[in-house]
Amino acid sequence: MFWLHNPVDAEESQNGQVFFNSLLLRSSSNAPTLNLPTPPQTRPTTLPPLSLSILGVEPLDEFIKEIADFVHHMIVEAKVGVLRERGGGGRIGLPVLVETILAPDGMDLRFESNMSVHQHQHYNTLLNELKLQPTHAGSPLSYKHLHLIDNFFPSDPSSSNDKGKIRVTRDEKTNVVLECMRKIRLGDLNIYSPKQAADWRVSVNLEVPMAHPIGTPTHTRRKDRLSYAHEEFSIDLTQVTSSTAPNAPTQILHELEIEISRSELLLATAMKRNDPNVSEHEASAFDELIRAFVNNARILVRNSSEGWQ
What we know:
- It is a single chain.
- The protein has 309 residues and is an alpha+beta fold.
- The chain is 25% helix and 31% strand.
- It has an eight-stranded antiparallel beta barrel.
- The longest helix is centred in the first third of the chain and has 20 residues, at 10-29.
- It is globular, with a radius of gyration of 35 Å.
- The N and C termini lie far apart (102 Å).
């Protein structure tokens, strides 16, 4: 079958060509283009560098800030232990899933820092392995084995209040006085760790140098201490033998604590905290110091073994 077209004259043909050309021009300038599917491209399977956030900065860590605000201008230590009910003695249980700072005086509880002999041996092995085989060669652990004797004297012999006692620390081998100090506790923050076998407590204190007291100590404490130093922190694993009276039975405790070694560094960085007149590095040094302190405490807690006393 043949399709028959009506013949057109030359003028109609020319007018048609002009109209067709104008359509092409409008099509190329205004009409939407047809997006044809492109072959799929292979994307890299490794994670590219990511920004800290859409603003390019890390959101404020409220956990670190809470502890940093608490320890501002103070002597800082953290102990590993267990938060227990004051009445029943069992470990507390709270409806939280992760590590949580408890409000001061929010619960009737006590913190028990005494660990079992098994725990003591476990931490001793862990810290010795880090000493012999450091995870990063640039920051090795150093180690000292100390034998110390603490004698406690009342700061006011006429008072029955024992909270203001003076501690005189001697080297047990040489009998040299190392410290004569009055320790004033300013406050505690308890951290509950439901996913771990242990909890921890941050304590802040003032240590006031005192003259050597005269008289007889009220009680004595012997400390067999394994002291590990790492950067700005000291980690002390201590067996404490204490007696409250000459003929009283002795009590043996095992404790683990981490402390910021240089109180002068803590105070110097605290003075410049968030100061707009110093460099960003100096203004954030205090929070970075507390961040490393918290991280070390968390590492110790998360490496606690079962069977806590």
